[in-house]
Hints:
Keywords: Cytoplasm, Hydrolase, Nuclease, Ribosome biogenesis. Its EC number is 3.1.-.-. Could be a nuclease involved in processing of the 5'-end of pre-16S rRNA. It holds the Pfam family RuvX. This protein is α/β, with parallel strands linked by helices. It has a single domain, classed as Nucleotidyltransferase, domain 5, CATH 3.30.420. Helix content is 47%, strand content 25%. It is built from four helices and five strands. The chain has a five-stranded mixed β-sheet with strand order 3-2-1-4-5, with helices on both faces. Strand 2 (12-18) and strand 3 form a beta hairpin. Helix 1 crosses helix 2 and helix 3 packs across helix 4 (106-127). The chain starts with a strand and ends with a helix.
Amino acid sequence: xxxxxxxxxxxxxxxxxxxxxxxxxxxxxxxxxxxxxxxxxxxxxxxxxxxxxxxxxxxxxxxxxxxxxxxxxxxxxxxxxxxxxxxxxxxxxxxxxxxxxxxxxxxxxxxxxxxxxxxxxxxxxxxx
Length: 128
């Protein structure tokens, strides 16, 4: 199953992908407007033959993530599973620092957050 992980933000969207048991980051999407973001995500879905989306939902949702996830599900006709993304950015930053990376960009944190979100989902599925 090819799965896309998304860490939604108003300025950037972290993206990750998995074809099996390991998630890896894809380039972060810069948010210009909803239409262009949906086009970029649709292209990624088509290119990677994605069958499911794991979508990070902040709590509380002050940025319209739930509404965007709903639109994404309607546009792509794929299952969009909402997952609590609380502390993924903090954990991602910690992991990037531990990796020895000297200069950490916000886009790196977003991509790492999406990857952690998707990897947690994959790990849970592999325990079943």
